[in-house]
Every structure is written in structure tokens, then in C-alpha cells.
Amino acid sequence: MRRLQQLHGNIAALEEEGQRLIFVFGPHYTQQVLSDSKTFHSRFFALRGPKNSAQRRLTSGLLTMNGEEHKRHRRMVFEPFQKKSIENYRDALADLVQRMIGEWKAGQLRNIFRDMTHYMLRVTSSILFGFDLPDLAYTIGHMIEQWMGMNHELGMGAFISDPGITQGYSGLLQMAEKLEAQILAMINHRRQSANLGNDVLSLLIRARDESGTGMTDAELIGQAAILFGAAHLTTANTLTWTLFLLAQHPEIGSALFDELTGVLKGEVPTLDQLEQLPLLDRVIKESMRVLPASSYSQRINVMPVQLGPFQLNGATPIIFSPLISHRLPDQFPEPEHFLPERWLSIAPSPYAYFPFAAGPRMCLGATLAQMTLRITVPAIWQRFRLTVLDGADIQAQVRSTMACIRPKLFFQQFHGKRQHPRIRSPAAGHSIQRCFQASRLTIPRRTRRPKLS
Ligand code: HEM
Q1: Could you identify the atom of ligand 1 that is nearest to the CA of residue 77?
Q2: Residue 304: strand, helix, or coil
Q3: C-alpha to C-alpha distance for 399 and 295, rounded to whole angstroms
Q4: Closest ligand 1 atom, CA of 288?
Q5: Measuring from atom 8 of ligand 1, which residue has the nearest CA?
Q6: Per-residue pLDDT averaged across 363-372, rounded?
Q7: Pairing state of beta strands 395-397 and 310-312?
Q8: pLDDT of residue 130
Q9: Which of 59, 363, 368, 376 most suits a substitution to test ligand 1, by most atoms within 8 Å of the C-beta?
Q10: CA 250 – ligand 1 centroid, Å
Q11: Best label site of 159, 236, 358, 453, fewest CB within 10 Å?
Q12: How far is the CA of 373 from the centre of ligand 1 (A)?
């Protein structure tokens, strides 16, 4: 993608055997595609499964809906993600993060990506499915994670015409059936409980549209699966990259430590305190600019449209990419550098900086994700200093969510007088596997001249 942008600018096409794929970068074309949901539809899952199959029901959530159906469901799914609903999750988040770091020991070697993925599995399953049946919630979360992974791997076959990749299709359908049975067990449990809880599933069971109609079990199954899939790895990856960037930039890490301990005195932030941490905000914004968890996604035009130089008559997949758009030098000078202070002087348009996408289909969980990040990072950063291990093999894989594979961060605990976190070796060796078979991602180089404020 990066080479395409460098060679052809902000709109480019790849064509193979009559199949055309359009790529748009930068605010102009991104706005045209993301703001017009009538012309450009979402087509998130490549493999929908046969009609009436579990796979079809599980892939029938917000991300795959369009038109009136999308509007109706978005209104119903919106409620659990409003500020007043998600504020209820602050204590659960504080409890889960404290439990996680309670098990960490100074001097340990840890795989932070694994830790964050595991932590977010607990967080997401509790918030979505409830706190009273943690084991069932966790099992469902784990199964959704595996099912999403299979969808991604097999779905790539539809994208890059590789017949070998589609061989596991029947395995995917079987997995979908097992997963659906578990989600249904949870729905039945919730429907039978006299008191529904504050978890998202309970709120969805209670939700009604304008005509007073609630969701059917099949609709709940689709929404629950997609919500989990949308929430889990995106947030785990953002946490991992943010901690990595802080470890890689010790001066910024120290300034953040000062801000956090000054306001929070070692405690997990309350909701009011979240408003008093401006450097934390800039760090998270910059982390999501330079390493956005959702590196690309796609739309498909459902009516003829002129997009830049291309007249698109038949349905054509269109890729938009926060990862590439966030690194355009005309929008973000020194784009490859992690510079949180740039946010003191820039206010990019929502189509130039869009880690949560933009327009009528913007991420519904953005506020929840922000709260999770702004509670978890301070809890960890006040207790532990992370150091990238000598010769650490930091690999990034560009997928529709960006997975960070095998980062090894070595950390020590703060003792009394704070010392600067040490980087033994900045991000040694990185590689990208498969982004339309030809692309490399640059892990931000260590910034040499951080200006702290
Ligand atoms: C750092 C974490 C997250 C990032 C980076 C992120 C990013 C995104 C992006 C880029 C999209 C647009 C995808 C597209 O249109 O193709 C999206 C959509 C969505 N996200 Fe998130 N997301 C995050 C967390 C969450 C959470 C925590 C939830 C809910 C529990 C969530 C729920 C959704 C939903 C439901 C949609 C579909 C909205 C629609 O189509 O109307 N996301 N997200």
C-alpha cells in the first residue's frame, strides 16, 4: 500500500484477471468514501456462509449491515456505548488491570502482546457478556477470537484469489456452530434472569427500536460476535503499541510518569481524573496515528460513481487506510516519528486522522476504547517501567487489525527514586508479512529530539 501511494499518489488501482481493487489515501478521497454510506457499502466478512447457517447469523452484525437495516441496528446498539453506560465499567477495568499487574514481578521478561491480548479477553468478555458467569463469558470470548482469526485467514482467499486458503471452509462452518451454541446459552441465561445486568448483552436484550420491537436471538448473536471481534484485538494491539512506544522513548515515558504520579499518586484514574491528563491524551493520539490498530478496511460501491480518475460501474472493492493516511508528510510532518507534542499545534480533519474511521459508520466503541486505554496505560505505567529487550524481534503484521507479534519487553519496577527507563536496543529487526503480498511497514524510529512540554 505504501508503495502504491508513493508511486501513484492518493488514489491507485490494482488489477488482476479483470478484478480491480481501488486504494484511497488522504483526507479528500477518504472523505468521499466514508461519508457516503449510500454509495459505498461495508462488506466486512468475505465468507458469509449458506443461508440459515450459524456462519451467516454470526456475520450479520453492524459491520456487515447497510442502508436502513444498519441505521436501525446502529441506533439500538448505540445505547450501551454512550458515555453514561460505559462509565459503569470503570471499576471493572480498574479491578482487572490491578489483578493483571499484581502478577507481574520486577525484572521479569514478558511478552506484552500476549499479556494485553489476555487482559483484553477478560475485559471484553466481562463488559460484553456480564460479570456473573466469568468462565462462560471467557470461553465465548476465546471462541470468538479463534473464529475471527479463521475468518481473516480464509477470507484473504477471496481477496487475493488464493484457492489454497479457502480449504478450511468447512472447519469454519463447524466452528461457527459451536460458537453460536455458546452465545445462545448466554442469551438464554440472561433472558431467564430476573435482573438483567449492566453488561452490553443485557442492554441489547432490553433495547427497543421506535416501534417497540426488540432484537431476535439471531440478531443478538450477530451483534454480540461482531462487537467482541471489533473490541478485543483492536484495543489489545493499541495497548501493546502504546507501551512499546513509551518504552522506546524514555524521555516521553518519564514525562508521562511525572504527569500520572502527580495527579493520580499511584492510583488507577477515576473518571474525573481522566480529564486532567493532557500528555496521556497526546501519547495515545500519537500512538494511534503512527501504529493504528485498524490499518485498513474496505467499502464496495453499490451504484456507479466517479472516484478520482476512475469511473466505477460494477461493484468494486475500495480500500481505505488509516495506516498510510496517517503517514502522509503533507498532513503530519516527520510522519514516521513518534512525537506526541505535535498534537499541541495540529487539529487534523476527521478524514486525515481516523483511527476509529469516520462518518456514519465510525467506530461505535471509540469512547469505550478510549476509556480502556486511559485507565490501563496509567495503571501499568505508574508501577512498571518497560524496556525493550536486547535484540528483541518486534514484528508487525498488517491486517485489517494490526497484530503485533512477539514483542518482548523487559521491565523493571520503579523503586523510590525514579530512574530513566533504558532501551537496550531500539526495535531491532522488523518485518511485515503479507499486505497484498508486497508492503513493508516502518516501526517508528526512536525520536532523537523529543521536545517535552
Ligand atoms: C482501539 C480500539 C478500537 C479501534 C482502533 C477501532 C477501530 C474501528 C474502525 C476503524 C472501525 C470502522 C471499520 C469499517 O468501517 O470498516 C470500527 C467500527 C466499529 N467498531 Fe471499533 N475500534 C476499536 C474498539 C472498539 C470497541 C471497544 C468496540 C465495542 C465494544 C467497537 C465496536 C465497533 C463497531 C460496532 C463498529 C462498526 C460500526 C458500524 O459499522 O456502524 N470498536 N472500529
Answers
A1: 35
A2: coil
A3: 7
A4: 5
A5: 356
A6: 96
A7: unpaired
A8: 86
A9: 363
A10: 31
A11: 453
A12: 14
Cα(224) to centroid of ligand 1, in Å?
13
Minimum-distance ligand 1 atom for the alpha carbon of 200: 30
Whether the CB-CB separation of 234 and 294 falls below 8 Å is answered with: yes
Ligand 1 atom having least distance to the Cα of 372: 27
101 CA distance to ligand 1 middle (Å): 27
Span from the CA of 369 to the centroid of ligand 1 (angstroms): 9
Where does the pLDDT of residue 393 fall: very low under 50, low under 70, confident under 90, or very high at 90 and above? confident
Cβ distance 81 to 367 under 8 Å? yes
Whole-prediction pTM value?
A: 0.88
Looking at the DSSP bridge assignments, the partners of residue 312 are 305
pLDDT tens-digit map of 195-215 = 678 889 999 999 998 899 999
Q: Give me ligand 1 centre to Cα 227, in Å.
A: 8
Distance 398 CA to ligand 1 centre (A): 17
**346 near 353, Cβ under 8 Å?**
no
Q: Are 85 and 198 in contact (CB under 8 A)?
A: yes
The pLDDT tens digits for 288-311 are 999 999 999 999 999 999 999 999
Cβ atoms of 249 and 259 within 8 Å: the answer is no
Task: Break the chain into its structural domains and give their ranges.
Answer: 2-442
Q: What is the mean pLDDT of residues 103-113?
A: 89
Q: d(Cα 279, Cα 395) in Å, to the nearest integer?
A: 27
C-alpha grid cell for residue 189? Answer: 441465561
Q: Check pLDDT > 90 for residue 253.
A: yes
The single-letter code of the amino acid at 357 is A
**In this structure, are residues 453 and 340 in contact, taking their beta carbons and an 8 Å threshold?**
no
For the record, the C-alpha cell of 405 comes out as: 507479534
- pLDDT band at residue 45 using 50, 70 and 90 as cut-offs: confident
d(CA 203, CA 219) in angstroms, rounded, equals 14
Residue with CA closest to ligand 1 atom 20: 363
When mean pLDDT is compared over 70-79, 99-108, 222-231, 339-348, the highest value belongs to: 339-348
Query: Ligand 1 centroid to 294 CA: how many Å?
Result: 9
Q: Could you tell me which CATH class the domain 2-442 is placed in?
A: mainly alpha
User: Best of 234, 240, 241 to mutate for ligand 1, by most ligand atoms within 8 A of CB?
Assistant: 234
Instruction: Measure the CA–CA gap between 390 and 437, rounded to whole angstroms.
Output: 30
